[in-house]
């Protein structure tokens, strides 16, 4: 019987196994102190590309991203950090950070501060590079400060002397735990990031981790450093090579060969035209837990928008809306990475319910009354051309169990087994020359078989869903500003790197809509 209530799931917060793995809870929502913050009034307002309103709306609807609680320093100071596979530096907020002390800046950036760090209260604090930390966001906002080292506690494990940014000038009120390739850190002198340190300090054997975001109705998921939990996915784990992006391995990029929409027994390809237009190179996708929505090349998203009778508001928000009626649809999207690897995402997973009271922000001529946000948007909304590359954020990642293996430069992927409460850990080793073969729980209760039910039920043991009638309301408050894209290094960035990164990523997705 695998169906267990959410409260029980949350109780499993921390589990450190005897093996060299480290499992830790991740929380869904918007961290920090930003409860109950009202959206700004829409008087005479036109949504500009840099408008924070769009990201506020996205966050209001999606409930934000995924973050974890950690402690920094001795004694430990509690800290909240956004978990981000799309960047590589850890950075925290300095107690003196400008945003945290200025109402004007909070208004401007639409964000408040989550807990900050005071170096004078930590006996293990060391300054590493004075003024050396500078992460620039593509809308030209940035976070700057020193690089420091201090002890960093995650789950029960303390990493000694982790290098991280200590930001005193910031545009967002929550730090980021970047868990990407260390080659991609924003420093002039590269340094071992948290993934390197976990391996170097013997916590894990292999620079790899698995991310389980879980059902969007669930408040928590988890991250497993150094292992694979075979109870969290269904069928065989596929292994895909990570591709270089530009010259180096900087992001978790895999090739993607198609995306199909299945309805009434018919199948429509949304990505073929894009794939065909790329010649031999094919299309690709970046897996980014730090982005809330997913973004497809315009041609592909347009096909979906038309097929699903969605609507893109070019005039104001730049967002694509969809009829909430599709929350009870049995249509499904299949993201095909490879002839052996595809992930099914029910269309209803891409229908994000709007909260009441947002009506004034939406265009009057929508072809439906019950307005939801579409979980897929066009990469054109970045104001930049990402070519045949898609950015797959949380709306996709929830349906997948993904193993990020930095040592072997491989991605392991399988259909997620939602609300799994059991654990079966397979430890990873860097000695092998590949991710191991891994088999999850039996397929069959998956969405793939749920074509004639209203809601997908993935719980084994017949866990019938208690939620009725499809529509659920997201109850997370407020509005972090994510008016910015993924961090890029200002020090020593090659032009190609910048080009490659242009258009990529806001922490919570919405931000990308108004950069540049
Ligand atoms: C981790 O901490 C929790 C709570 O303090 C404790 O119950 C548990 O035994 C610890 N686990 C390990 C492996 O130290
Ligand atoms: C998973 O749990 C959440 C509650 O935390 C529930 O709303 C949801 O329906 C469950 N999902 C499945 C597939 O059973
Ligand atoms: C396709 O999948 C197979 C098996 O999972 C893998 O060996 C192969 O490298 C993959 N090819 C690409 C281009 O991803
Ligand atoms: C893409 O190419 C394939 C193989 O050449 C072809 O069958 C298909 O019709 C093309 N699709 C589109 C949308 O151009
Ligand atoms: C979302 O926005 C609405 C309208 O301003 C507001 O009433 C509501 O409290 C917000 N909800 C959350 C969860 O932020």
Automatic annotation (TrEMBL):
Q: Which UniProt keywords apply?
A: Aspartyl protease, Hydrolase, Membrane, Protease, Signal, Transmembrane, Transmembrane helix
Active site, per annotation: 84, 288
Gene Ontology MF term list: aspartic-type endopeptidase activity
Q: Which CDD domains match?
A: SAP_like
Q: Where is the composition biased (Low complexity)?
A: 437-459
One GO-annotated biological process of the protein: proteolysis
Which Pfam families does the entry link to? Asp (PF00026)
**Where in the numbering of this chain does the Peptidase A1 domain appear?**
66-414
What transmembrane ranges does the database entry give? 495-515
Keyword Repeat part of the UniProt annotation: no
Q: Which InterPro entries match?
A: Aspartic_peptidase_A1 (IPR001461), Aspartic_peptidase_AS (IPR001969), PEPTIDASE_A1 (IPR033121), Peptidase_aspartic_dom_sf (IPR021109), SAP-like (IPR033876)
Q: Where is this region: Disordered?
A: 434-474
> How far does the signal peptide extend, from start to end residue?
1-18
Record family assignment: Belongs to the peptidase A1 family.
**Record-linked PANTHER family:** ASPARTIC-TYPE ENDOPEPTIDASE (PTHR47966:SF65), BETA-SITE APP-CLEAVING ENZYME, ISOFORM A-RELATED (PTHR47966)
* Name assigned to this protein: Peptidase A1 domain-containing protein
Q: What is the lineage of its organism?
A: Eukaryota, Fungi, Dikarya, Ascomycota, Pezizomycotina
